[in-house]
Amino acid sequence: MATEIRVPTLGESVTEATIAQWFKKPGEAINADEPIVELETDKVTVEVPAPASGTLEEILVKEGDTVEVGALLGQISEGAGSAKPAPAKKSDGAGKAEKPAEPKKAAAAETVDVVVPSAGESVTEAEVGEWMVKAGDAVKADDTLVELETDKAAQEIPAPQAGTVVEVLKNTGDTVQPGDILCRIAVGAGAAAAKPAAPAEAPAAKASSMPPAPSASKMMAESGISGDQVSGSGKRGQVLKEDVIAALAAGTAAKQAEAPAAKAPRAPSAPADGEREERVRMTKLRQTIARRLKDAQNTAAMLTTYNEVDMGPVMELRKQYKDLFEKKHGVKLGFMGFFTKAVCHALKEIPAVNAEIDGTDIIYKNYCHIGVAVGTEKGLVVPVVRDADEMSIAEIEKKIAEFGRKARDGKLGIDEMQGGTFTISNGGVYGSLMSSPILNAPQSGILGMHKIQERPMVVDGQIVARPMMYLALSYDHRIVDGKEAVTFLVRVKESLEDIQRLVLDL
Q: What number of CA atoms fall less than 13 Å from residue 461's CA on the CB side?
């Protein structure tokens, strides 16, 4: 009975391979799982283990041939006595013959697929960002492999197990969906075998004692490069197909670097505009921000009303209790806690600002989920403080501080940025004195905070300098009337200028 040796599945995007070398000849004994043939693909070199013990009966495909996945490579004859034993060594003098050493079995590496995780009901796709690893890299469990960008946040994908990255299936910029395979990791005892040796650091590799792989030899002959121009990364320094490709790419890059100097035109009076420009791909998050903001302008009947607030009472209260507050609650006392509470009070009185339009219906929200806009290096994100109306100022400050840390580290979850009913944006931290914020659809209102600046104000008939802040409320005029918008902003102003109202819940 014969056992077939076939080309294994090498990945979704790999359909063929080249026979690099056979480790056995017809008639030689084989043990199960012992490497029998080496295959080269355009991504990685793999060893095919023997599916059973026996004798290699026949080789059907010679070295250098290209075969498809599933193709028959050879056959192994099984059964007792089918494997030819190695000849016994001479007696040791005591009448006992030494036993021939048994060949070691190669440990098979288990392959684990790293897939795109589900990121929430409203997130159906993501864009592959920066890869932290490449094929051949060894990784530890939980090491970051790649960053995925969705329309809401960036998400780091960790390694599920320790091992070696054997294949990267998606490139930076590719659009992927939950369940798509990003890369494959070889784990287990055989993982080390899947990792190609690190290329030599010297510019020109020393000639290897191993002959180049057939596919590499053919490509070298066609390209006119010699063996001393290629660094071998295969076993025992063997030159593989990908080594030749890398050498050709390096040569092309060097020529391109020299070309401008050789073909430089006469010195122009000024460099071309194109040479002073930089083209950078927009992140998925930035693309979504642009689309959503423009959609909000096109859909809503957006209008903005303005007012100003004397921040003196809040600043005095904060100055008086900030040390005690931080000591008791473990978080600094800022302005966002006061503004969030003031907004919640105003939303209770003017529920239209806390509502949204769904077709021909208006959905009134009997809760206050306040989104707090946070600027990051990758764009604006809006985590949501849920049920802020039921929280104390200390609880709100703790939650906002937590969101700030997560936003800076790129750790905000999708669920933490969904479901907001109203948004607060603080442009004052960047020095903005006045602006008109854009609605965060499908919400009907957003409050813009601005820089605190001392201005001359008339107080009790006297002109005095007061720390003033302009407030801006942008609202959807389809659902919020002008009177309601102005009243809402006045209520926020009154709460902040008469701080006892917040403390007494008035």
A: 0
Is 243 a catalytic site residue? Answer: no
Q: What is the pLDDT of residues 169-199, one digit of tens each?
A: 988 888 888 888 999 998 865 555 555 444 4
Assess whether pLDDT exceeds 90 at residue 472: yes
Which CATH code fits 110-192? 2.40.50.100
Domain chopping of the chain, boundaries? 2-77, 110-192, 284-503
DSSP letters, 357-395, are EETTEEEE-SS--EEE-EEETTEEE--EETTGGGS-HHH
pTM of the complete model: 0.50
Task: Write down the residue that tokens 């008086």 correspond to.
Answer: 320
**Whole-angstrom distance, CA of residue 24 vs CA of residue 30:** 8
Could you tell me which of 97, 95, 73 has the C-alpha nearest to residue 18?
73
CATH top class, domain 2-77: mainly beta
Asked if 477 is an active-site residue, the reply is yes
The active-site residue, picked from 42, 477, 498, 505, is 477
| Percent of the chain scoring above 90 in pLDDT | 27
State the burial class of residue 100 (Cβ atoms within 10 Å of its Cβ: 0-12, 13-18, 19+): exposed
Task: Give residue 96's pLDDT band: very low, low, confident or very high (50, 70, 90).
Answer: very low
| 4-27 tens-digit pLDDT | 888 887 665 667 888 888 888 888
Residue of 228, 295, 387, 481 with catalytic role: 481
> What CATH homologous superfamily does 284-503 map to?
Chloramphenicol acetyltransferase-like domain (3.30.559.10)
